Amino acid sequence: MTIFVTMAKKPTQTEINEALQKICKHALFVNSPQNTRLLSYLVEQAIKGNKIKEHVIGLDVFPDSYSLEKNDGSVRVYMYKLRKKLEKYYALESKHTTLVFEIKKGQYNLSFSDIKNYDASKKASKKSIEIPLKQLYFWAIILFLLASFAFFYTHLFPKNNYCWNAFFSGKEKNLCLVADHFVTMNKDQNNFSISNEINNQNEFIVYANKHNEAHFEIADFTLFTKMAPFTIQTLTAWFYDNRSDFLLKTDSDFKYEESREKNILYVGQFKTMKESKSIFLKNSKKFKINKDGFSYIESGGIKNYTTTFNQSNKTEYALVSFEKTSNNKEALFFVSNHDIGVLATVRNFTDRNWLENFYKNLPTKTSHFNALFEVHGIQRTDMNCKLVQLEILD
C-alpha cells in the first residue's frame, strides 16, 4: 500500500482517521456534507495510493449530479471550495494540529503533511517576487503572442481524429449500440435459455411455433457478454478525452430511424444483430458474414475467415466497418462473433498512434472502409491484432 506523504514519518491509519473526524466535526465542515464526503473520499484514495482524475471523482462522489458531458466543471468547483476550507481550517487550528490533509492547487490527489512543513510552504508562497515593470510588460506581450499563435494554429490546423471526426465534432448526436442476447423462458419449468435462432420478436414467434410443446415466452431482460463493460469503459474515456459523449442503448432497443438522426457506434457480436444488421456492411462489395466469421470475395473466389480454438489460444476475426448512413451521418462498427475481437479492435482504434499507422494503408484521412483483423489471445489484456483484408468504400 502506498501513501503519498510529505513528512518524515508516515501517519498511521489511526492518526489519519482521528484527523479526518476532527475536521468533519469542525464548524467549517459540520454543515457541509458535500465537502466532508469529498474529503473522506480523497483521504481514502490517498491511503490506497490511487491517482485519481476529475471524471472519476465526479462519477464516484457526485453520481446524481455529475455528467460526462463536456464543460461540466462541477468537480473543479468542489475541489476549489474544499481547498479553501482546508486552508482556513489549518489557519485557525494550526496550534492544535500535527497531521495536515493538503490538496495542492491544480491537483485532484490529496497528500499528507505535517504542520511544520505545511506552514513553511505557505510562508514561502507569500513572499513577493519583484519584477521590473518593463520586464513584466515584455513577458505579458510574449505570453499574449504565444496564446494567439496557439489559438489560430488549433483552428487553422485542427487535430485529425480520422474515423472519429464526426463523433467528436460537437455538432452531432452519437448513439452507441451494445450487442445483447435475446432471452426466452420456458413457462412450465421456469428455465431461461439463449438461442442463436432468436434475436427478435418475429424470430421468437417462428421458433415458438416450431416448439409449441415447450410453452416459450420472452424474458423481461437481455444478456451481455464481458465485452460490454470493458469496451464501454474504454469508449467513455476516449470520448471524454476528446470532449464528446454518446447515448447508450442495447441493440435490441435500436430503431433504424435513429440512424438518420445520430452517428451510430456498434460494439458486439454479429450473431445477435437485430435492426443494426440493415446498416452493417450495407455498402460492401467484398465482405459477407458466414457462420462463425466472415467471407471475403476476391478475384480467385471466396476466402473464409472463421474462428479456431486450442487449449492455449483462440484465433478469431473482427471486422471494423466505417461508412456513411442516411442524412450524411456516420456509422462505425466493431464486430466479431466472440469477445476478444471486439476488445482488441476497440483498444486499437482508441489509440491515436495506432490510428495514424493504420491510416497509412488508406488513400485519405477521411476514407470509409471495411477492415478485417485477425485476433489472437484469450485474456482481454493479452491480444494480438493484425490487419488481413481491407476494402476501401469511397
Describe what you observe in this structure.
The chain is an alpha+beta fold. The chain folds into 4 domains: 5-126, no CATH class; 134-158; 173-179 and 224-392, no CATH class; 183-218, no CATH class. It has helices at 13-24, 33-48, 54-61, 74-93, 115-126, 133-156, 201-210, 227-241, 339-349, 352-358, and strands at residues 5-6, 99-102, 111-114, 173-178, 183-186, 191-194, 216-218, 247-250, 262-269, 287-290, 293-298, 301-306, 308-309, 314-324, 330-336, 369-377, 383-392. The strands form 4 sheets. Strands 4, 8, 9, 13, 14, 15, 16 and 17 form an 8-stranded mixed β-sheet that branches. Strand 10 (287-290) and strand 11 form a beta hairpin. The longest helix has 24 residues, at 133-156. The radius of gyration is 28 Å and the shape is globular. The chain starts with a strand and ends with a strand. The model has no long low-confidence stretch (mean pLDDT 83).
Count of DSSP helices? Answer: 10
Strand percentage: 15-25%
What's the helical proportion of residues? 25-40%
Radius of gyration: 28 Å
Taking pLDDT < 50 over at least 5 consecutive residues as the criterion, the unreliable ranges are: none
The strand count comes to 17
Q: Alpha-carbon distance between the termini?
A: 54 Å
Number of domains: 4
What's the pLDDT, averaged over the residues? 83
Q: Classify the secondary structure makeup into a structural class.
A: alpha+beta
Shape: globular
**Sheet of most strands:** 8 strands, mixed
Run of helices and strands: EHHHHEEHHEEEHEHEEEEEEEEHHEE
